[in-house]
Design goal:
- Helices cover about 55% and strands about 10% of the residues.
- The chain has about 220 residues and is α+β, with helices and mostly antiparallel strands.
- The protein has a four-stranded mixed β-sheet, with helices on one face.
- Helix 1 links the parallel strand 1 and strand 2.
- Helix 1 packs parallel to helix 3 and helix 4 runs antiparallel to helix 5.
- It is globular, with a radius of gyration of 17 Å.
Amino acid sequence: MLTIHGIFASRAVRPLWAAQELGVPFEHVPTPYQGGATRTPEFLALNPNGHIPVLIDERPEGRVVVWESMACALYLARHHGKGDGSDIAPANAAEDAEALRWAFWAVTEVEADALTVLMHRIGLPEERRDAAKLAAAEQRLRVPLAVLEAHLAAQAARGWEHLAAQRFTVADLCVACVVNWARPSAELMHAFPRVHAWVQHCHARPAYQALKQAARQSR
């Protein structure tokens, strides 16, 4: 039995989406990152860092607890996917390497500036938005997004629409979750049309849309 602590509008969307794609039954415990819910003794016993998401996998050999959103998503793909090329799990060493490198790339090269774009474009009240911070973040993002644009072009040249394979994999999921934060920047999306089309395609998937609809209904 899987349990995922977190909320859709957070990094917890990564394991939630992965579990949904894999069709794995799971219990979702809506745990917000604000209001002290992640600072209770019970939650800190699961993740002493006090952050969501937390994934709990009750296995025959014992309980496995995973935190860090990318680790959660990659764990789900590796340990709950079929690994035969029929779902998001890597089907071979090359796909596993792609998933690992793109997931870490997204965190190190894109995430901080993409979050700045999200917050200073639409997330924060207008009086708290900082145009200088926004402009600097958008400028820095041009470097990694150019890398992603070039990779997608190379994939398209071989007839592939995704990052690691001909099909949507956990590599796409991990990177799309991060790049999605930069979508409010029309300028960046115009500058990198392959990235824009790819991230839209990823988020149009039924599994993601089902999670989004469930989150709306739970408000």
